[in-house]
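During the no-cost extension, the postdoctoral fellow (Dr. R.K.) reprocessed legacy sequence entries with the updated structure-token encoder. One reprocessed record is reproduced below for audit purposes.
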Amino acid sequence: MEGNSGSNQPAWRQKTTKLLKNLGVEEKEGLTEEEAKQRKKEFGPNKLRETERKSRWKILLDQFKSFLVLLLGIAAVVSLAMGQRLEGISIFAVLLINGLIGFITELKAVSSMEALKEMTEIDTQVLRNSEEHKVPAEEVVPGDIVVLHAGDMVPADLRVVESSKLQIDESALTGESVPVSKNNEVIEEEVPLAERKNMLFKGTFLTRGSAKAVAVSTGMDTELGKISASIEEADQEKTPLQRDLDQLGQRLVPLLLVVAAVVVVTGLIRGMDLLLMIEEAIALAIATVPEGLPIVATLVLARGMWRMADRNALINNLSSVETLGSTNIICTDKTGTLTENKMTVNNYELEESSYELTGSGLETEGKFVQSEKKTDEPENEILRESLQVGVLCNNASFRNKDGNKEVAGEPLEVALLVAGLKGGMNRDKLLDSMPEEREVSFDPSKKMMATYHGIDGGYKVAVKGAPENVLNSCSTVLTPEGKKEITEERKESWIKKSEKMANDGLRVLALAKKEVQGAEEEPYKNLTLLGLTGMIDPPRQEVKSAIEEFRNAGMKIVMVTGDHSATAKNVGRSVGLLDSHEVATVQGGELDAPEKLSSKQKEQFINSPIFARVSPENKLDLIELHQENGSIVAMTGDGVNDAPALKKANIGIAMGQRGTQVAQEAADMILKDDNLGSIADAVEEGRIIFANIRKFVLYLMSCNISELLAILFASILGLPLPLLPLQILFLNVVNDIFPAFALGACKGSDQIMCRPPREPDEPILTRTHWTEMGFYGTLISVVTVGGFVLAENLLPVGIANQKLVTISFLTLAFAQLWHVFNMRDLRSGVFKNEVTENIYVWAALILCSLLLVASVYTPLLSTALKTAKIGTIGWAIALGMSLVPLLIGQIERGIRGNI
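Re-encoded structure tokens follow.
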């Protein structure tokens, strides 16, 4: 049964009378409102399942799926179990804040997607109670009689009942770029979807003609719904950032266990109490696991997400923000992404002359250029005849109301109307003087179309179609000297002209005419050839510079299109994807059996910049080929058939303006302006984010290691604990988060898009960074313990241990604050760099300094943290010692930057 057609036979194999009876509806009356309501209850609303969106609970739970969060949770539970209630509650509070930030940000993304979806919601005309009513497409039910006209979107899967000159653009569903003709004839045998000529499918639209059709499937039962359901279960791979943060958390566990073992063993050897050792182990756990890391990573990604939205890129989830920064392959479709998706007449080839036409898209101003001579309205009579035939043999419409251009119909026919307007020919005015009496619709087998127009007591027949087919129907050609016979030699010459134009990437049509006495005469005999017209979908203006930017950034752009090789190569050359000598392309069919490809073939395909005649399955194979080669792949798409590839890619990028709902929901990112340049902006933002993440991870981890090592060194030296557990938590929550988040807001280097993307398997912290982390951590911990020892020797004998611990606490705290300046780029200036020029860094330092002072002089904080007033000498020791890591760090960075 086809959807809800009411029979075991699919709708396309049933006669309309039988189908209407099975569906319980009269063609001229439609359903009653009561029947429509009942059927909506039975079949549900006509929309794709909304559960494809993550529920709010799932979005919230996803914020806690991290190894680092797990470690923090364990530390909190242990703290509570040991009676350290304040420490445990504080850690849980940090986790909750982090989760809420991520939740609110992703919820905002979902709201943006919903708003985008609402923009694409449509109304449709249905027959209810014998009258036409406009209703939301969501209200269409099986059995509804739907009335459609050129430009209308098909709201459900429909069986054609009546049609006139009907053509449908099914590219979103099948990938076929040429509109297909439809009728109401019964199809006797089982046929694939693309050959069901009496069916209209949800998500496609009418390029011309009109239809009355009955709804047979709605919602998830439509072909669109089936594809949507099929991609729901596809697994999405973790992003590089998610993997890196998990690996970082896992690497902390052995480090924690080793240091904890050393501290506990040395403590027991010294005869210290076991319970005290357990408390120290808790302190070590708190010191090792960076409480601030998840929350700062979330905040920085959220900020990047909002910045990308301002630059026309909507992100579905936080981690995808960073994925763009490590992307090294972008597979992009041609139509609408590299090109404007607006056909433009480029030139006319006539007997003994040729003309180029300026202006692109829907611009109605243009010049006719012949041998560098430009004219507004052509004087050549053959050219005028060619323009006229293109305008007359046409079903598109073009209106210019108060500067707003409204078009309907096939892009190719719209282009012919625009070309006619450039030559001073308006279709409506032409039809006033030579009204259309008959149309012979485009026949895919004959590849031609004809219209008959009343003129001087007879009829003018205007014909357009595929060059070879039109030539075979012509007996003469119009020349400056009049009509001449088309000899085999002349025909061969025209065929060569057509092939050359096609090889230049043009869509070629032949134009012909004849005069007849009766409108019933055969249209395709004894025609007079006027010439050829070549059309092109012009490249988007910003694409060339975007591709150049991608190349400078070490990224490879691959065009993946269903069009012919010649068209793809022409567009590739015009946008800078190919140089004038590079012509190699791969046909999609060559990817049909990827498991049988040799190593040499795989290498060839990986290096190829253009793939033509590509099917949806070929896209999946191509993505897998690049991923197996270790690449991070981004894939753009807009149609339903692109959804699996968008899901498979490391980052799927759907178009916001022309993209289907299924494509947008399968994607990680949506371009609001369908602009390749917006991907470049997003990539730049992703790279800046990763560089900033690396900065604050290095900062956070070196700070946390300094706390770990300070406890270790003090334990080895037999000193009291220099930091209390809650003091460590205070530093990790306050002192780490604000400077780290400020580092995450650095503007990034001006040269960031002049560097290659990082290797896909490169972690956040490389071996060099771990060495730096150990160096800085050791440096800060040494001055912390040094401050404790110095205070013990310089201050009066018998000073309370609480004051000594306060001095070591403040020494460590301020050393960590000044350490933020050690995060500058190696080749930047000491006083002028991305850190010192970041206003958020200075704000963070002022805020944290005030909080540290408050931790000593505010009774509530002082009591909780067990700090004491330390006097002028104590402050001098703490601040003086805290500057040592900054000075040594700047010397170290200066030396390394000059190597």
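The first helix runs from residue 16 to 23. The radius of gyration is 36 Å. The remaining legacy entries will be reprocessed before the final report is submitted.
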